[in-house]
Amino acid sequence: MTINPNSARDKASILIEAMPYIRRFYDKTIVIKYGGNAMTDDHLKNCFAQDVVMLKLVGMNPVVVHGGGPQINDLLTRVGKQGEFIQGMRVTDRETMDIVEMVLGGLVNKEIVNLINQHGGRAVGLTGKDGGFIRAKKMFLKSEEHNEQIDIGQVGEVTEIDPELVALLDTRDFIPVIAPIGVGDNGEAYNINADLVAGKLAETLKAEKLVLLTNTPGVLDKQGNLLTGLTESKIHALVKDGTISGGMLPKLASCLDAVRNGVNTVQIIDGRVEHALLLEILTDAGVGTLIRAEATPPII
Ligand SMILES: Nc1ncnc2c1ncn2[C@@H]1O[C@H](COP(=O)(O)OP(=O)(O)O)[C@@H](O)[C@H]1O
Ligand SMILES: CC(=O)N[C@@H](CCC(=O)OP(=O)(O)O)C(=O)O
Predict the structure, then answer these.
(1) C-alpha–C-alpha distance, residues 292 and 289, integer Å
(2) Which atom of ligand 1 is nearest to the CA of 213?
(3) What DSSP letter does each residue of 203-256 carry, written as one string?
(4) ipTM, interface predicted TM-score of the complex
(5) 204 CB under 6 A from ligand 1?
(6) pTM (two decimals)
(7) Could you give the CA distance from residue 180 to residue 67 in angstroms, rounded to a whole number?
């Protein structure tokens, strides 16, 4: 059927289509990871902010965790430094850490907060230092060949998230917008991959859904076809044969952690599509890659 958006009947049917989704997600927490690669142009950023406000207005509790990898790279280049990644994690020396905090906790966080507020929401920006709510410790990577530890500087892994601050904001209908910076036992700042924070936060908040917006249609096979219904064993096979690499590695690791720990649905979607978030949550047209627990039957 072709939908004519000018016809009253078709407009109504689009709205009615949203009803089961609104019912399902009403009063539920939805953690949204907004990747730096999906923050490409102003129009898309405005669409994203409108979608978040819409979800809040229909009674859901959206919590935004944002990245900003490309935006950090831009500032590093301006100060004459080159960004370096190992296994999808930025090598973070002290100077880089300062830039990460400036970009994530400052520029990117406040831009998203401002956009949501301009569209009628009430967003509040946080980093893990606020209320000390994201605790972290130093992360070491394992070298694939020699099983040795690789030190990548001030990069952290989440040890604990205190859900109270987010819950408090929720009671007053604020929308939390969270930058992935954690705080260590001695007050030191850690640069944490935003996917890892989003996954852990979804678990801690017992979110109904985790949605990750990025710059691909989802997880693709070697021919570029979209894959969905991915389970742990399928993901391991795709990592082993080199289909999955770079930034997709931490993304899928945190998706798997989230489904293992009680988040009902985890979906990677294309943030370059206008209103991708709204389409994913409120319509039958949601696309992208669904990640599911091994034993769960496919949702559709
Ligand atoms: N199998 C795959 N399917 C899709 N993307 C992949 C795959 N393997 C690696 N990637 C890379 O992962 C990137 C997404 O991760 P990342 O750059 O960290 O995005 P974000 O900033 O949204 O977190 C894609 O742009 C792509 O370059
Ligand atoms: C340790 C680490 O790699 N941290 C990331 C944090 C930002 C991020 O994750 O941004 P995206 O979601 O846009 O990739 C970084 O420094 O780029």
Answers:
(1) 10
(2) 22
(3) HHTT-SEEEEEESSSSEE-TTS-EE-SB-HHHHHHHHHTTSS-TTHHHHHHHHH
(4) 0.97
(5) no
(6) 0.94
(7) 7
